[in-house]
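Re-run with default settings, no changes from the original entry. Doing this only to confirm the output is reproducible before filing.
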Amino acid sequence: MLKVLHYIGAYRIWLAVSVIFAGVSVALTLYIPLLIGRAIDCIVQKGQVDFTALSGLMAETGIVALITALLQWLMNTVNNKITYEVVRDIRDDAFKKIEVLPLRYIDSHSYGETVSRVISDADQLGDGLLMGFTQLFTGVVTIVGTLIFMIGINPGIAAVVVIMTPISLLIARFISTHTHRMFRLQSETRGEQTAFIDEMINNQKVVQAFGHEAQNMERFDEINRRLSGYSLKATFFSSLTNPTTRFVNNMVYAAVSLAGAFAAINGSITPGIFSSFLSYVNQYTKPFNEISGVITELQNALACAERIFELIEEPPQSSDEGYPELPEPVRGEVSLENVSFSYVPEISLIENLNLKVNHGQRVAIVGPTGCGKTTLINLLMRFYDVSGGSIEVDGTDIRGVTRHSLRRCYGMVLQETWLKNGTVRENIAMGRPDATDEEIIAAAKASYAHGFIKRMSDGYDTVITEDGGSLSQGQKQLLCIARVMLCLPPMLILDEATSSIDTRTEIKIQNAFAEMMKHRTSFIVAHRLSTIRDADVILVMKDGHIIEQGSHTQLLAKGGFYAELYNSQFSV
């Protein structure tokens, strides 16, 4: 709650305005029963009605009611502004945190669950805040205001109200403490369900190919049943609050009616003022029902807020603010000295890795699955920091420069393509937003993507979705290659960059790569060893170690592990 209040504090002026509107509107609302009570007292008996005073009181009541309605509308508008500004700020902070979270966090949490925190949980928080602002302020002010009016009318009868109403608060408190856990479980399970749906939609082809629909349906039903159960229990416990407090409040109303009736018989209170008093009792007890409902909704909102703040408070990747940029011009000389790294401390992956790459060298990295090829790329790009040793570019430790300046020096084409929702032109120019149309077209021609782009409905202005829409995997990969060819950075990383391209186009792309890699340091991760025969140096990795290195000819002549891998691919 304190963390939520911290965000609300940025809008304290609007909050003060809302409280003022709430106070004035409640005061006017409470003034109306007093006017109506006086109007009743103007009616003595049949044929004895003070119409002059009565008409004046009714006109005053109408004016007060209109002003009250206007103030309540203004208060609700202000409350909406505060709520959605606060939710916007919380979402902004959550998204900013995602941008600076270490890749270790992203890899260890499902995407759908993270999305659920930023979208669904923030919505639930907003609903709770809006109800809190709308009903909590007016409820508290109404309770205080009606109490003052009732004490002013008859302190004795007011004492009956004050003594009995705390019972409903105690009941509401007891119930709310038991609903929080259920709302927390409901929120967590909702995130789990979102993650599972996201996973299934993204991998629907695989699911259908392996006939896994029935198992997935069972898994979804199991999650859905748990969510239904938690939601039902949370709703059941929270729904107990209102009828229970209503029962107590009705008992209060009956007690006040009895006490007031005796007072009216004794002449200590007029019938009109007694009717006003009963109206105040109704208005006094009504906020207890509303506040109990608000407390229940806040339990849900705070359970969702906990999950959002867990994300916001995750430790970010180590800051490089104030660090210098990588000195330019970057030649692309890379050295790894005694590098050690593991994703899990108990399981070592890379140990005492040493490597020296000269400017303009083409370095191929090969080895069996899980040997550390992609991990080495992650370390070069500083997606992960080394556990021991150091990586230097042009003699500068990459941990001593900004990540942006380091990554700007690499052009990366991965086996898994990534395109954003936008035009083809925007996707190609992602690394160079200021590129001219001529430069973008030249890059597309160099990557052999120009032909299929021109055949698209709007050419380079065709809008594609984040997964490429109807584009084939090969076409998406060509766009990613064009993106790198437009930037032409001093160092390249090609991780199975032509894996989804037909053989004829691959030969052309390989020629284009060969031209692009001239005078540029290049790291090529390959499973098809035929694509790296011309590499200057081939690193053979196994279990996180470089066990062989040399040219293609040298490694074949050596007859070691590389020769085995190569011959296994081309043996008949």
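Residues 224 and 426 are 40 Å apart (CA to CA). The chain has a mean pLDDT of 82.
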